[in-house]
Design brief:
Blueprint: H1 2-13, H2 28-41, H3 45-61, H4 69-73, H5 77-80
């Protein structure tokens, strides 16, 4: 099962130049923080979320067994950006 997931992930990464739009639900608190960054820094929400996800996945890739997940769940959106 892990190999199947790994292969699917690898196939998806081959198309990294392609962008995909998704609809997600986030807590209002996160929306306010994202909107604040947009207004104060002139940084659009999409690029802010992309940067945060990139950092998040970088952290996970450093710890494939997920031992940092507890620690990561305590991090705030501010520290990811």
């Amino acid at each position: 099962m892990r190999n199947l997931a790994r292969n699917a992930t690898q196939d998806a990464l081959e198309d990294c130049d392609e962008e995909k739009e998704i609809k997600v639900k986030i807590p209002v608190e996160y929306h306010v923080k994202l909107h604040t960054l947009k207004v104060l820094k002139g940084q659009n929400i999409s690029s802010t979320v992309e940067q945060a996800l990139t950092r998040y996945f970088d952290i996970l890739s450093e710890d494939p067994e997920g031992k940092r997940l507890e620690k990561l769940s305590d991090m705030t959106v501010d520290s990811l950006m």
